[in-house]
Amino acid sequence: MSTCGPIRAPRSRDRAGGEMMERRMMLGLALTAALPSAALASRVRPAPLEVLDTYLANPVPDSRAQVEGQPLRLRRVHDWQFDPAAVAVETEEGQRLGYLPPRQAEVLSRLLDHGARTSARVTAPGRIQVLLHL
């Protein structure tokens, strides 16, 4: 009967060189095992969080041609005289549609000032959904 012992990495003739080779193999295996999970973690992002479902304040007169689901972007406006916390609602092409209502813009403007990523989309004519990307 033959017995099999544990499987070991081949060792070179030189004892010091063999241990070094074994360490390199172990390090390589550890890095290879860690890479897929690290790569997966960097690609997986949580779904955007809905923070507002609101109406479009101060709409531009020709901005009525909104399609449900149309993606929009939000842009912080610092110099609007009527609201220092103004947040403009624009199409992806940059056409201004209007603004967020002042009460809701007050909170969202602070987030935008600190670098928060947001997006929006039309839910119905004159209504928008604001999403926060974490």
From TrEMBL:
It holds the Pfam family HIRAN. InterPro entries: HIRAN. GO terms for molecular function: hydrolase activity, acting on acid anhydrides, in phosphorus-containing anhydrides; nucleic acid binding; zinc ion binding. Residues 68-125 form the HIRAN domain. Keywords: Hydrolase, Metal-binding. This is HIRAN domain-containing protein. It comes from Paracoccus liaowanqingii.
